Amino acid sequence: MKRLQRFNWRLLALILLCGFMSCAVGAKADETVVTEDRTIVFKIGLSYYLLDKGDGIWQSCSMDVAPYVKNGRTYVPVRYLAEGLGIPNQKPYIDWEEKTKKVTVDGRIIKSNLLNLYIGKQLIFINGKKKDIDVAPEITKGRTMLPARYVLKAWATTCSGTPPTNWSSAPGTKRGNY
Length: 178
Fold this sequence. Notes:
Helix content: 10-25%
Oligomer: single chain
Shape: globular
CATH class: Alpha Beta
Number of strands: 14
Structural class: alpha+beta
Radius of gyration: 20 Å
Number of domains: 1
CATH topology: Copper Amine Oxidase, Chain A, domain 1
């Protein structure tokens, strides 16, 4: 009996230690974006996102780069975030200037703001007004990556690090069963 108790205490200590270690290392933080009419879920390491346009049917949308965590922040591809929010994936709505390394995302088509981001600079322009941010957009596999919160804040949209429950890779299923 005492052996079993010692084993249980050791098992509990090991579980707690693993839990603390995962916090110290930084757990993966998937990104869920919620607007009035849609929900978008980015999953760390997967090259697709799930999109619900408010009808309860989830679509799987492919990307050529996966979200990742860096310094405890979840970076998502800005182009696909904008596309998921309803911004057409074409000029002039989403544009890139090589010379200045400027990314333009025109959210006015969805009754929001015009954003300008500069690769490597910790700032964002919202309708021409400069705002400092604490991380710089970066390029990964040819895509501009930035924590979603900055883009969403500029568009007065919400996000959370907690994806909906029952995540699966099966698109086209009803909300809650995906």
